[in-house]
Write a structure and sequence with these properties.
The complex is a heterodimer.
Chain A: H1 21-36, H2 39-66, E1 70-71, E2 74-75, H3 76-93, H4 100-107, H5 110-114, H6 120-150, H7 161-185, H8 194-206, H9 219-228, H10 236-242, H11 248-284
Antiparallel strand pairs in A: 1-2
Helix pairs in contact in A: 1-6, 2-3, 2-6, 3-6, 3-10, 4-7, 6-7, 7-10, 7-11, 10-11
Chain B: H1 2-11, H2 13-40, E1 43-44, E2 47-48, H3 49-70, H4 74-82, H5 85-90, H6 95-102, H7 106-125, H8 132-158, H9 167-182, H10 190-199, H11 207-213, H12 230-254
Antiparallel strand pairs in B: 1-2
Helix pairs in contact in B: 2-3, 2-7, 3-7, 3-8, 8-9, 8-12
The chains are: A mainly alpha, B mainly alpha.
Chain lengths: 285, 257
């Protein structure tokens, strides 16, 4: 592997500058365009989201019906919002993870990324933001529309809910990216990345609130999960904001927790990246 | 072929262990969801926990068994896209049997065992009144359910012959079907229920068999012996899937590959 720099910090790190906004935008646009070409996969994925949306919606509505119209602080219509916005968010937030970086590491293509003057975490983040933006227009818009048309959908009346939700969604996507980056970076150390990948999927979906609203669990457990792990901030937090389950004050609290976790995860991601690069240099530089 | 695959699998020891544990927990998630739901409600669609749990576990076992036998047809999707499927046509075994044998995954057996244990627990919780007909019905239900889901897998993979990127589309029916049959079908809205439970026959996988097993009346009004019809539904599904598969292979061959 060609050494791009003789400094002790590893390949390219001495030459890296903080990523300029223009470059970030260009990379994001590229990500958006790339994912918008996967038309058939998007269509098939949307279909699945809609089918699951209907099923989860009926089941949760039945739960609410058995409890005189509400359960765990959700009214029936709020559960409808929870389910459909949730289905819409799965792809945006990248809840099921991806293995692109891990594949690039295993094939060695990642070296090209490391030689660039931009920090890999930043460049991958930019592309992921583009991907997420496209997902909002396709994988999120359709399920939400389906829910609005087919069910009694709770639409937030308080105008401030919308920007808070948008912020929560953005944080969730960025936080998820950070987590996925770390999971993928495991490929720098172990060849078969399926273990970490499955662990991530399990945690993100179950503890994120995809299978059931986390509030179905004992309150102490919910609080602990929310503060001690990043997972509820990925899905449950934005959904609680959108469905009106959380008051404005609580919603801002959720934002705060998500922000803290995002910082923590990114610090870890950057550290992991640095460690990985050092290892690469030692191995074959 | 099987021994070589198993050996290669076991060599990825650590990641494999995590993967096995992860996959095992994943199949349990549907059941976990049912448990959590019954934490916040006493009935669902008028049914108490034991009956719903028996539906979920029966459906889950059938799905796991079908996944074990036929699940590798998913590789078909990849094989067509990468052109590797052509290689298999050269070998003397039938394509379907080859795909089934190429990736023998130990974890799929684990899931079936898990499913069996879960059904056992569910039967105990539901205080099933054991007798020869009851035992027979249970076995028949699981076998029919396995055939049914298997047919679904094959049909889903067959769509790839016409629509290459249809993977997630098929998932809507296979995994969606798994989810659908986990709960009593009377919770679903009329149109949705008519389409999936009756039109596509999903109600025969677990809902009606469990009603018959536990001598429960059907809120939808069908007679108590409806649960015995699951083999019929499974046979129809298998026939349809086989026909679709044959048509797909013919179509694939005729497009000049």
């Amino acid at each position: 592997m060609v050494r791009a720099s003789t400094s002790a910090g590893g390949p390219g790190s001495a030459m890296r500058s903080p990523i300029p906004l223009q470059t970030f935008a260009v990379l994001a646009k590229a990500g958006f365009r790339r994912y918008s070409t996967y038309r058939q996969a998007t269509l098939a994925g949307v279909f699945t989201n809609v089918v699951f949306g209907f099923m989860r919606c009926f089941v949760l509505l039945a739960v609410a019906a058995a409890g005189n119209g509400s359960v765990a602080g959700y009214e029936g219509s709020q559960l409808v919002t929870y389910v459909w916005v949730g289905q819409g968010m799965i792809t945006v937030v990248g809840l099921w993870g991806d293995t692109e970086l891990a594949t690039r590491i295993r094939t060695g293509d990642v070296v090209a990324d490391l030689l660039r003057p931009i920090h890999p975490v930043a460049s991958y983040l930019a592309v992921d933001m583009g991907r997420a933006a496209f997902a909002v227009t396709s994988r999120m818009a359709v399920p939400v529309l389906a829910g609005l048309l087919a069910f009694d959908f709770y639409v937030p009346h308080d105008a401030v809910t919308y920007p808070i939700f948008a912020a929560s969604l953005l944080l969730a996507t960025v936080l998820s990216f950070g987590c996925r980056y770390i999971v993928n970076a495991a490929a720098f150390w172990i060849m078969d990345g399926r273990g970490p990948q499955i662990a991530w999927q399990l945690a993100s979906t179950l503890l994120g609130g995809l299978y059931f609203p986390l509030h179905f669990l004992p309150p102490a457990a919910v609080t602990w999960l929310w503060l001690a792990t990043p997972f509820p901030s990925l899905l449950q937090a934005p959904l609680d904001i959108a469905s009106g389950h959380a008051s404005t004050r609580l919603a801002l609290g959720y934002l705060g927790v998500a922000a803290v976790w995002t910082v923590v995860i990114f610090v870890v991601a950057v550290l992991v990246q640095r460690r990985a690069e050092r290892r690469l240099v030692v191995q074959g530089g | 072929m099987l021994a070589a695959q198993a050996r290669a699998q076991r060599s990825y020891r650590a990641s494999f262990t995590v993967e096995v544990i992860g996959a095992t927990v994943f199949t349990g998630l549907d059941l976990l969801t049912v448990l959590v739901i019954f934490r916040v409600t006493r009935t669902l669609g008028g049914f108490a926990f034991p009956s719903v749990f028996l539906m979920s576990t029966t459906s889950g076992l059938s799905f796991a068994a079908a996944d074990l036998v036929v699940g590798n047809v998913e590789k078909l999707r990849l094989g067509i896209r990468t052109g590797q499927l052509d290689v298999l046509f050269i070998r003397p075994l039938g394509i379907l049997r080859q795909l089934v044998a190429t990736d023998f995954e130990l974890r799929r057996i684990g899931r079936v065992i898990e499913g069996l244990v879960a059904v056992g627990i569910a039967c105990a919780l539901a205080h099933v009144a054991w007798s020869v007909p009851v035992a027979l019905l249970l076995v028949l239900t699981v076998v029919s359910g396995t055939v049914f889901f298997g047919a679904l897998f094959v049909a889903g993979a067959t769509v790839t012959f016409w629509w290459i990127d249809s993977g997630e589309f098929a998932n809507g029916f296979t995994y969606g079907g798994r989810d659908f049959t986990t709960y009593p079908v009377n919770v679903y809205g009329t149109f949705f229920r008519r389409l999936f439970a009756f039109g596509l026959g999903f109600a025969a996988v677990a809902y009606y068999p469990v009603l018959t097993l536990l001598h429960l009346p059907d809120p939808l009004g069908l007679p108590t012996w409806t649960g015995w019809l699951s083999p019929v539904v499974a046979a129809v599904a298998a026939a349809a899937a086989t026909a679709a598969w044959r048509a797909g292979v013919r179509h694939y061959r005729s497009t000049g590959s």
